[in-house]
Design goal:
homodimer, alpha/beta, Rossmann fold, 2 domains
Chain lengths: ~260, ~260
């Protein structure tokens, strides 16, 4: 047993979609969530910038005595995960490998896999590379969605703007089997995304897969916490940032009076 | 007479709205335009980051032997102009002071002035401060528009997404006399903006005002170039960036085969 919390970070509200899944699948784990609202958005930053920022987030979470780190952010996973794993001893998990493993286990024949993500993630080619390593006969269709993360931070996830934006971005996914939501902000648009795809397309919320994957690891390594229950703490690097974080968090996690603390770095 | 070119910079396509006005009002001046697409968007960056970036842009333009610098960017004007003026000898102009002077010269009684701009610009309070210094009885209504610059870079300036986004952002401007487009990307949405405001609202394109202001300064200081005609050169810090720059530039400036060079910094 390891009673220490799990650390989790994202650029803003996106990782809440991961936090939500962790609370369902790992109800006894305590989670320390860090939203780096001071540096949002990550999606348009350089690889070097993302790595530098991600190290700061990891260091902050380590200072809170966490037992592992979850990168609840598609951009940071795609651009920094490999380097971070080389730089730290603490276990660090991102959203890509568990998702690719999940798809591989579906044993689809020549799967056509759509990936929608931030510009930075798509440019990194990380999803396509990992998918083709594991499933060489897959066909990958990439789409950059530079507006969605900002729209989610603003709380615009079901208005007319969101509706037409999703409609536009889904146009290139006419003929796919699977759609990976390659940015953790995007499950907030899940209803609209489903509405604009063929019914048989499987839409992957990477948070659900990552939570399941983490559960297995924690159980195998006997790192479970069996004492607490669904506790979480939230830190933001900029409480005054241009995001509707508190409202979105309360609505999304179904809790009132969430206490948000400031992380100063 | 001073035959050297005028230098101009923005984070991306926004400054083209200023370039267009300069070509109309100062047809003999040669202009060197720098779009810092590598670091776009500026709107969500810190003041320190904007200042550091702006210095790099100014240094690049000075290396091209320009006679003056035009900050064709609302965010960089609001956060960096004052410091830049203190750090350099070359004349540097931004979009705020000329616009505030223009409004002041309208001699309106208790003008109600709307400002729409990036998050960084609105948070800096620069527009409100300068307006109230000059017109203390003015009422200023501020609105952050975190999506618009990215939408303009994508070329989404007249589709359904743009339509509903503008409609949403215009809601707070029900009772104003003047609307300042505080980010140089926004004149690309001018038709939609007009459509969502009362007919009597004066919408200010800061590029038009800045071009007129610059013309006066150049004439007063006898810095005109009377030899060339409407030439311009365009540099981008990232030619592969996530922007539809070339198409937008060709469409917006009404020219074909625009040659874009890379600025390496």
């Amino acid at each position: 047993m390891d009673k220490r919390p799990i650390g989790m970070f994202d650029s803003g509200v996106g990782g809440l979609t991961v936090l939500k899944e962790f609370r369902k699948k790992l109800p006894n784990e305590k989670i320390i969530y860090l939203g780096d609202t001071k540096r949002f958005p990550y999606g348009s930053k350089s690889k070097e910038a993302i790595l530098e920022i991600s190290k700061k987030c990891v260091d902050f979470l380590i200072s809170k005595n966490v037992k592992m780190i979850i990168i609840a952010c598609g951009t940071a996973t795609s651009q920094a995960l490999d380097s971070l794993i080389n730089s730290y001893d603490i276990p660090i998990l991102g959203i890509i490998n568990p998702t690719v493993e999940y798809i591989s286990n579906l044993n689809l024949e020549k799967p056509r896999v759509g990936v929608i993500a931030t510009s930075g993630t798509i440019k990194s080619g990380a999803w396509e590379k990992k998918i083709l390593e594991k499933i060489p006969e897959a066909k990958v269709i990439n789409e950059k969605a530079p507006l969605l993360a900002t729209m989610a931070e603003t709380g615009w996830t079901s208005n007319k703007v969101a509706e037409y934006t999703i409609k536009e971005y889904m146009k290139c996914f006419k003929d796919i089997d699977i759609l990976i939501l390659g940015c953790t902000h995007y499950p907030m648009f899940e209803n609209l995304i489903h509405k604009n795809l063929e019914k048989n397309v499987k839409v992957l919320n990477t948070g659900t897969i990552l939570a399941q994957y983490t559960k297995k690891i924690i159980e195998t390594k006997k790192m479970e916490n069996i004492e607490t229950s669904g506790q979480f703490e939230i830190y933001l690097t900029d409480i005054e940032a241009d995001t509707d974080f508190l409202n979105i968090a309360e609505q999304f996690l179904g809790e009132k009076n969430i206490n948000i603390k400031e992380a100063n770095f």
